[in-house]
Design a protein that fits this description.
- InterPro entries: DinB/YfiT-like (IPR034660), Maleyloyr_isom (IPR017517), MDMPI_C-term_domain (IPR010872), MDMPI_metal-binding (IPR024344).
- Keywords: Isomerase, Pyruvate.
- This is Maleylpyruvate isomerase family mycothiol-dependent enzyme.
- This protein has helices at about 5-20, 40-60, 80-100, 115-140, 145-160, 165, 225-230, 245-255, 260-265; strands at about 180-185, 195-200, 205-210, 215-220, 240-245.
- The protein is α+β, with helices and mostly antiparallel strands.
- Helix 1 runs antiparallel to helix 3 (about 80-100) and helix 4 crosses helix 5.
- A 5-stranded mixed β-sheet has the order 3-2-1-4-5.
- It is about 45% helix and about 10% strand.
- The longest helix is centred in the middle third of the chain and has 23 residues, at about 115-140.
- The two termini are about 30 Å apart.
- The chain is globular and about 55 Å long.
């Protein structure tokens, strides 16, 4: 039930990038990405590689403000061989810089946790989810290891407690209210994995914990599919059941993902 260690995250950035790179040979870089419809495959890969490089620059410089965002051009003629090497280099440099800095290095981040450890974790799961996007674009199967997937869901739950996720906004339905609880349960893990999450939206701010409990809405399915559903990605047909107030789950997922819209436009 603990988060992935800093060293594990550094290793996973490279490992997840390497898994993604196995999908590049023979792929059409101009192919659309169904889960990121504004991008083709080459643009998606550029986005991920740019994210790795931007964070590497931030950590290396111990930056106190965000680095300039790279603009993903309307590219249709990327060379897969060049992109493959470029992605490998960027992931390796990021992991090396993170290790050299150490988990407690103070750097700019998008949250109050101003540490290199935040970026190690964030870039691990950024790479995982975009690996899923690439797999979808090329028609390949996708899965992710249990420990990594559990931590990715935990990270999402943490983002869902931020004020941006629940603050009242004009024209946006309120997230908090009486009786508003969610239970997310992975059905393909052993009991010791504790792959169940209870989200409580009844108080002044959202809270979450790993727990089994009845809730206004229950979402059940394989762990990888739950992760994909939370991130708004397609799941395998019939693998996820939503019982109870499905509209509450949709609202929570949308509000908790406030940070994705800005990030994926960078």
């Amino acid at each position: 039930m603990t988060n992935l260690s800093f060293d594990r995250c550094c290793a996973e950035i490279v490992a997840q990038t390497d898994l993604l790179r196995t999908l590049i040979p023979g792929a059409d870089m101009a192919a659309p990405v169904p889960s990121c419809p504004e991008w083709n495959l080459g643009q998606l890969l550029r986005h991920l590689g740019d994210a790795h490089r931007r964070v590497e620059t931030t950590v290396a410089a111990r930056a106190t403000e965000p680095a300039c965002d790279a603009q993903v051009a309307d590219v249709t003629d990327e060379d897969p061989i060049v992109l493959d090497a470029w992605l490998a280099e960027g992931a390796a440099r990021l992991a090396q810089t993170l290790r050299a800095a150490g988990p407690d290095a103070v750097v700019w981040t998008v949250v109050e946790d101003r540490s290199a450890a935040f970026w190690a974790r964030r870039m691990t799961h950024e790479t995982v989810v975009h690996r899923a996007d690439v797999a979808l674009a090329v028609g390949a199967e996708f899965s992710v290891g249990e420990e990594v997937a559990l931590d990715a869901v935990d990270e999402w739950m943490g983002f869902g407690t931020r004020p941006e996720a629940f603050a009242s906004k004009p024209g946006v339905p309120d997230l908090l209210g009486p009786g508003r609880t969610l239970h997310v349960h992975a059905t393909d893990t052993a009991p010791q994995a504790a792959a169940e999450w209870l989200v409580d939206l009844t108080g002044p701010a959202p809270t979450w914990r790993r727990a089994h409990a009845k809730a206004a809405v229950a979402v059940r399915g394989p762990l990888t599919d739950l992760l994909m559903l939370i991130y708004g990605r397609p799941t395998r047909n019939g693998t996820v059941d939503i019982l109870g107030d499905a509209s509450l789950f949709d609202l929570w997922r949308q509000r908790s993902g406030f940070w994705l819209e800005a990030e994926d436009k960078e």
